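Lab notebook, bench 4. Still working through the backlog of constructs that have no structural model yet. Next entry is a single chain of 551 residues. Request: give me the structure tokens for it.
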Amino acid sequence: MKKGSDLLIEALENEGVERVFGVPGEENLDVLESLRRSKIELVLTRHEQAAAFMAATHGRLTGKPGVCLATLGPGALNFSTGAAYAHLGAMPMILITGQKAIMTAKQARFQIVDVVASMRPLTKMTRQIVSPASIPATVRDAFRVAMEERPGPVHLELPEDVAGEEIEDVPLIPVHPLDQPVAPAVALDRAAEMILAARRPLVMIGAAGNRPRLVEPLSAFVRKMGVPFFNTQMGKGAVTGGSNLYLGTAALSEGDYVHEAVAAADLIIAVGHDTVEKPPFLMRSAGGPKVIHVSYQSATVEQVYHPDAEVVGDIGASVTALAERLGGKLPEQTKLLELRQRILAKINDRSEEDRFPVTPQRLVHDVRAVMPEDGMVCLDNGMYKIWFARNYRTHVANTLLLDNALATMGAGLPSAMMAALLHPRRRVMAVCGDGGFMMNSQELETAVRLKLNLVVLVLNDGAYGMIRWKQAVDSFPDFGMTFGNPDFVRYAEAYGAKGSRVTSAEALVPTLEAAFKGGGVHLVDCPIDYSENTRVLVEELRNKVPDVDLA
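Model written out:
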């Protein structure tokens, strides 16, 4: 007879799951045995948080939930940051945790935490499985909920006695397609009229516009409309950055060069904006541009986001319908496109400066130089994220992965490992600060064991650089932000990886090229000079004066 754990794994196979990431425990042993006999690969990580980050990134890149596994109590709680990462970032994921037997209590309350309650604010749905017979329906429902807009994590708790209980065969539930409702014609007509009436419309692409299935309809929309566009950090790469209509990325909330275009626009078509992101611009109650919200769900009205009209429905269908209504009818946006040249020139300023330690501009320039168009750069969270968001040009969708929702440290290396697993023939690079890298650096062993081809670029400044910079900008004394680091080259070698150290600005490109050509897991230790943060992001932007007449 089958056990509950067998039904669980069969249900996962039914959903097309190929890998499960995690750290099993005593309460998962039945599941582990069922997994051993299945076609699903177990990717054993060194920490549950890394397993959750990998599963979330799988969901982000494929649109299908990644699956991660942990035991009860401490193991399950180590999923918390990964669950929040997926919840805020709208990444479909299934978290499966164990629990002590619920029919008996032979170990009293040892290690027992109410994980279902702890996961409730961090997931779209959390449920304890109390009967093996309910497993097929519960798993099917979990995948449906995880994938429905807005996507996110779902948690299932499987007690060990339910996992081990024998049961007659229970039929699996067939997977069915999930279609999005289409926006009503009246909303599309209203939006089209507003766009036709605008003198300087501008498209903004947000996080919900950056779904794998939207690449083609969004790219076609931009081409047919001929309207300049910019994106939020998590909308970056939804439409090719090589387009001659691309104005830049809103890496800051206000005051950057791209915000001159925002200020000049009289209408912003916000495609897929999710207010979970740091604001890409600050709306004004009067005198600012009107905003049309185009997304799967109604706008979340905030002080910094309160649109004038909404087009709610499948984004792909909505932008296609708008392009059909408006294609060829809008005048060329000459003034905004003139402004584009100035924006991009300013962003690229000093990008080849040979100062050492390297500056952020040179870092981004040189990383772009070694990455092919489909190469994937996966960022951890730190000061460099702003520079990559501003300066890195994407040419293929989902080739710059960053988190501007939870914005957690420690996710960069696991997300790059997932990208390398999914795309073994592409160049994949993790870019991590020394602080964020050390939060999950143990996963170097996992990457080596999986025989991944992966370059890990560690930016070394011996500090929590972003917070240290903010501390200085806010005129606080320099305190509590610096630390010592191991010898990163020897550290990588201790895990069986390769290691190199950058010793001059001119050496960065050849060092990265050699790391990629050598194959395997290769860590590159690169000192970085963050003095440009203050010069550019504070002093230069504070004193900038628009020099393009948009009247």
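Notes after review: The longest strand covers residues 93-99. The chain is about 40% helix and 15% strand. Flag for follow-up if needed.
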